[in-house]
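Do me a favour: review this protein, sequence plus C-alpha cells, and tell me how the chain folds. Record follows.
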Amino acid sequence: MLRNWYLTLVLERAAGVPLHLQLVQAIIQEIQRGRLLPGTALPGSRTIAEALALNRKTVVQAYDELLAQGWIETEARRGAFVSTRLPLQQEGNDDPASVQLPSSFARALPENNAMPYGDLAANVAGVIRFSDGVPDARLVPFDVLSRAYRHALVFSARANRLAYDDPRGNSLLRVAIADMLRAERGMGVTEAQICVVRGSQMGIYLSARLLAASDGCVVMEDLSYPPAREAFASFGIALEYIPQDNSGMDLDALAALCARRKVSAIYTTPHHQFPTTVMLSVERRIRLLELARQHDFVIIEDDYDHEFHFSHSPMLPLASMDTDGRVIHIGSLSKVLAPGLRLGYIAAPETVINRCMRDIILIDRQGNSLTELAVAELMRTGEIKRHVRRSLKIYKERRDYAVTRVREMIPSAVFTIPPGGLALWLELDARMDMQQLQRDALVQGVAILTGQLFSGTGSAIPALRLGYASLDQQELDKGLAGLALAIEQQIGA
C-alpha cells in the first residue's frame, strides 16, 4: 500500500535504551498525542529503517512489540496500521475550549461561542439540510467544466502563465464579466472596473475594509445576511439596523437615521432581500440613490442570486441606475455553478478596484487562475448561459413543489411566493420557541436556519429561511415531514 508521507521520529542512540524500544516508545507517544490517529497507515519496515538509519530487523522487532501490546494491527499485503480499537486521544488538556490563549490574542479576539453561520449539522450523516439558499451542485455540467479546466491548464502551461497573475483577476474573465454586466444588467463598466474575488463574501469583506477608517456607521436591514454583519463588525465599524416591509428597506427610517448621525454606507440585497426574499421596489431604489447623494454615503449592493428569477426578467441592479459612482456592486458566480468553486466579483469605480487590488495583494495575492480561465471560457462559449437556463427551469419546478408541499404539510406557515431566489421565508406561530424547534427538527433529521440568526438585534423571530434548491422532491418531502412533526410537537404541547 502506498504511503504518501514519511513518519518523522527522533531516536537517542546514546540513551542506553535499545533502539527497537525507543522506536516503540516514540510511536506510542505519537499515537497518544493524536498525531497518529486510529486507522493511520504506518510506513513499511524498509521505509522507516532507511529514514532512521536502522537495521530493518530493528524495525520489525519494534512493530512486533507494538502489535503484541495492541497499539497497531496488520493486514496481509497492506501493511501496519494504528489500531482502530484505540480511542481518540489528546495530550494534555482534554478540553480544547479551556486552553488559554496568549494574552495578546486574548485581548484582540472577542469571545464568540455562537455556532458558525451555516453550520447545519454538517458532520451528521443523513440529515436533510434546509440551507439559506444554495444551488444544487449535482446540476453542474461536469463534463463541460472539466473540459474547460483542461483547456485552461494546457493554455497556462504552454504560455508559461502558471506564475502570479493580476491580483484583480484574470483579464479574460474580467472582460467576460464586464461584457455580461453591460449586456444583461445595464451597467456601463469596463474591465478596469472589475475585480474577481473568491466568492461574494470576500467582496463584502474587502468593501468593509474600505470603510474601516470611516467615522460613520454602516446601515443594514434588521433581517440581513449574518456573514456581512460579521465582516463589518470585524473592522470595528458601528452597525445600525432599520426595518423592512413587503417593498423592501424602510427608507423613511433610513432618512431619519441619516438626519441624526453620520452614515458611511448601506449594505443591501435589493433583488431578493436576504432572508425575506422580497424585492426592493423601483420607487425605493430611486429614493435610496437620492439619499446616498444627499447624505454622501456608499451603497454596497449584494446581488447574490441575480440569475435566479422566475416570474419575469430580473430587475436591473441599483448599479445600473448609479450616475455618481456610489454603488459597489458585488456578484457571485459560485451560485451559478457551485459554491465550492468560490468565484465572485466586485464592480465599482476604478479607484475602488485599485484599492481592493492592494488589499488582495496583502491577504491572497491572487485567486485561482485555472478556475478563472475555465469560467471565462464557459462565459465566452455561452455554456454558463445554457446552464443557467437549464437550472432555472429545475429550480422553478422545485420552488413550485416546495410551495405546494409546505401548504399541505405545514398549513400554519405564512409566506409569500418569491418571484425568484432559491429559498422561502416561512413565518410561524408567534408563540413558537424557535431554538427548541431547531433542536426538535434535528432529532427528526432536519437542520434549519431560524429567524433569530438573521436578526441584527438578536430578536426572537418566529420564522425560518427554507432553502429548497439543493433538494430534489424526495429530499424535500423527507425534510418537510420532519419539520412538520417538530412544529406539531410544539403546537400540540
